[in-house]
Design a protein that fits this description.
alpha/beta, CNF1/YfiH-like putative cysteine hydrolases, 7-stranded mixed beta sheet
Length: about 260
């Protein structure tokens, strides 16, 4: 993993994705004011649309991509293909995107949930999934891999995958876990009421056919590390449903083949 800094803009890059335009961005380097300071990439949290558009433009310029595709994330298991994209698009009601189109960045917006990024270097296909605990229960990862197989003929054994900064086992407290989490996840309890969802995602990736050596977990908890937006931290600090921004994880095939 490599950290890149350009003025106040900070993003993480994975060596598994060498040759791709990609980054997992911190909350810094944008134009939004509190409580969305400053690189908020979500239109759905109460920030000025003009600020969000400017922040997305910063991300596109930094990564050198033409268009940014996202979705209004609903904690479901709907996966969409994004082809023939000629402008920035935000789809309704989906939690994962896949494409073979070059120069198109797939954006996942997050404030504790995982972004799971996928690259098939053989078929030249990418994917990006939003997976919070509800997405883990629905196995959003398997749904994404399945569509990549059916639509593009991807072999899961070829996939390179990265699990972004997100809620860590140190802070992933679920008091009602017996009702919320299936029995298959109970073995990932690390102490009373706390669960390792990074391990859950690694397990789901391997069950989908991705080799363990081709899975990278960044291992940064977004509650502990204040460089990232955190909904749970905002709730704790504000004492009510938290108002905060959303970081972004983006992956794109380069506009031109190497």
């Amino acid at each position: 993993m490599k950290t890149e800094q350009q003025n106040s803009l900070t993003c993480l890059h994975s060596f598994l994705f060498n040759g791709l335009s990609h980054g997992m961005f911190s909350r810094f380097g944008g134009v939004s004011g509190p409580p969305f300071a400053s690189l908020n990439l979500s239109y759905g949290v109460g920030d000025s649309p003009e600020h969000v558009a400017a922040n997305r433009q910063i991300v596109k310029q930094h990564l050198g991509i033409k268009h940014l595709v996202s979705a209004v994330q609903v904690h479901g298991d709907r996966v969409l293909t994004a082809e023939d994209v000629g402008q920035d698009i935000e789809y309704e009601g989906a939690d994962a995107l896949v494409t073979s189109q070059r120069g198109v960045g797939l954006l996942i917006q997050q404030a504790d949930c995982q972004a799971v990024l996928f690259h098939d270097p053989v078929r030249e296909v990418i994917g990006a999934a939003h997976s919070g605990w509800k997405g883990s229960v629905l196995n959003m990862i398997a749904a994404t891999v399945c569509l990549m197989q059916k639509r593009y003929g991807c072999d899961p054994a070829d996939l390179r995958t990265v699990i972004s900064p997100s809620l860590g086992p140190c802070c992933a407290e679920f008091v009602n876990w017996r009702q919320e989490l299936p029995a298959s996840m109970h073995r990932h309890q690390v102490r009373e009421n706390h669960f390792d969802f990074w391990a859950v995602s690694r397990e789901q990736l391997m069950e989908a056919g991705v080799p363990a050596a081709q899975i990278e977990t960044v291992g940064i908890c977004t509650i502990c590390n204040q460089d990232f937006f955190s909904y749970r931290r905002a709730v704790r600090e504000q004492g009510r449903p938290g108002r905060t921004g959303r970081c972004g994880s983006v992956i794109a095939l380069p506009s031109k083949q190497p």
